Amino acid sequence: MKNHLTGFMEFIRERGVVGLAVGFILGGAVSKVVASLVKDIINPVLGVILGATGNLSSYYLKIGSVKILWGNFASVLIDFIVIALVVYFGVKGLGLDKLDKKK
Questions:
Q1: Which of 32, 40, 44, 95 has a CA-to-CA distance to 59 between 20 and 30 Å?
Q2: How confident is the model at residue 100 (pLDDT cuts 50, 70, 90)?
Q3: How far apart are CA 61 and CA 71, in angstroms?
Q4: Chain mean pLDDT for the chain
């Protein structure tokens, strides 16, 4: 049993599992912050610019009895773009993009 525990601890140290776990947890936190930014700040501003008050995610196009929720799609798309930019500039700013290159 001791060999398995030692092997497991070496695996965690060598493979950077702790760093991966921390990154995963921070990614979830950043995602919540960005979702709030988009929902509470960006969407209402876009709603005012588009000529109506309210949240962008509530906009839809009605064709017959079908509602196409283009506002919700736009909100999710903005959310994705902001998260992608945060990750890109975070990785570039910390110099993490150079870690995977062969030496």
A1: 32
A2: low
A3: 9
A4: 77
Task: Record the pTM.
Answer: 0.57
Query: What residue ranges define each of the domains in the chain, with the CATH number in brackets?
Result: 2-98 (1.10.1200.120)
Structure tokens at 16: 């950077």
Residue type, 32: K
The DSSP-derived string for the chain is -HHHHHHHHHHHHHHTHHHHHHHHHHHHHHHHHHHHHIIIIIHHHHHHHTT--S-GGG--EEETTEEE-HHHHHHHHHHHHHHHHHHHHHHHHHTGGGSSS--
